[in-house]
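Page header: ASSEMBLY MODEL / two components / 646 residues total.
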Amino acid sequence: MPSNEFDLIAQYFAPLSAQEPGARNLKDDAAVLDIKPGHQIVTTMDTVISGVHFLPSDPPESIAAKVMGVNLSDLASMGADPYVYTLSAALPAGIEAAWLKRFAETLSKIQKKYNFTLVGGDTVVTPGPLALTINALGTVPTEQSLSRIGAEVGDVIFVSGRIGDGALGLQVLQNNLTVSDKNERQRFIDKYQSPIPRLRLGKELRGIATSAIDISDGLLQDLSHICKVSNVGATIELSDIPVSSVVREKKDLIELAISGGDDYELLFTVSAELANNISEIGLKSNVNCSIIGQVTKGNDIIIVKDGIVQETIAKRGYNHFNT
Amino acid sequence: MPSNEFDLIAQYFAPLSAQEPGARNLKDDAAVLDIKPGHQIVTTMDTVISGVHFLPSDPPESIAAKVMGVNLSDLASMGADPYVYTLSAALPAGIEAAWLKRFAETLSKIQKKYNFTLVGGDTVVTPGPLALTINALGTVPTEQSLSRIGAEVGDVIFVSGRIGDGALGLQVLQNNLTVSDKNERQRFIDKYQSPIPRLRLGKELRGIATSAIDISDGLLQDLSHICKVSNVGATIELSDIPVSSVVREKKDLIELAISGGDDYELLFTVSAELANNISEIGLKSNVNCSIIGQVTKGNDIIIVKDGIVQETIAKRGYNHFNT
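Prediction written out in full:
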């Protein structure tokens, strides 16, 4: 590791700021940025800690992908375009230059993919585990951002992609689950380690979705967030939730799939009139979107399987504070 | 501590967002904000970790003041007006509700003082030490932000307030230094625990200062940052550096005062023509500003005492990575 903070920033992080003159090559106390007229800024912050949000054995590439992915996913759920970010890296004293190099290279790749630029942050040595915090800034045309608030009775509930793959990936990595199909196994691991933010989809849903959230805490819990703040209930059909064949075949995995978190898919609601547009929007956004239920009156989430009520719940899912 | 993250946010943090409708009561994935026309945004991020940036024995009031102060100080050094912030709180599992209450109350007081509002963030349980990260957003009229870059040969070098009080406060708290004057002793501790961001001064220096930085790493190191990025040298007169009588009386403390860090005063340069304006600006900003030297050619910082050269240095000060 470089012997001082300034060399470390100059070597690994300053090159990541080159696209944005307002970053001042990371040589100033802060970055100074222009906002396009007619746009609002969207700001979100997420922290990932070794041993909590990723495994200590995860390679730097997937740790970089995770911290970028979870923050970009929040921008996606708001319908925002990525703009710039600041990064706080709390590094254990022994971290190696090779680790930093690989970490920064992955940040660079993701930046290019999503047109997202590092403009500042902080680098500190921590006596604790590796911890990374990103504050992501996005932009959105004024008044066009998405929100968790706005689901209305009668709206159709959609999810993008497949649900549960991330939770299964964690189980595979922890040797709690064996998946014989090697491609599928890798897909689960990739989903856990390198979430794909549904930015294109979020953008296409501006003016279409009545509410949206990214699934980080688990489908049920994130649906309950939408229901709570929109003051509605929901009915979801288990058989319609898009899951891998591994989940279809092992019945005890469905609970994990819908409660487990780490999907980073979008869960959103659309009026019945506009629901037909979603398959085309999914095609444009390169992700399949599935109808999984309907917004109802009340505050309960009713889980149905093949039309038969399985469970009625008020609140569910992964709770960071009980694990 | 509340049993889940959502209750904790609702109870302690959501009330801090009440002034800003775009914070959506912290119920959404992100905040959505308007930027005044003719303004740029300024973004900066600083992390403080227990045992590194503050003492594990520090009360929640001073920890809140520290993380707010260091970030607001960065906005001050850019000449920005505080706008909003996001906060990542990585809390050890056993943290108590009473601690959180006192912490949030101090955030609230500082918010009111500086017209600064919480709009989002993240709350996680960490197996490591308490760690807090703030991303501060400020605004500045377009093209009027201050910068470390811009000091010119012949400019006069100023500092605000007194230098070294924060470093002395740390020594007092660590029982390495005895200060008999109780008021002075408390002043040192307050300076270490609760830095005062020089926001009014930073704002008044728009269009006046050719360069500015806040002193976090120590006067000499921060001066060397300005010199490096502005491609100039400096001469400073030790006798002109405003220090407490404790430092004046004990000669070995001057080294600590100018290298120690944690001042969070502003160090800035002004052309000789405009230097006369600074005493009035200091009065307006409620902080004394002292001339401590001059910008020179070359890259060296020359330290003079009563006109006699003491030392010539290329780079100096506190290095986060060597402690």
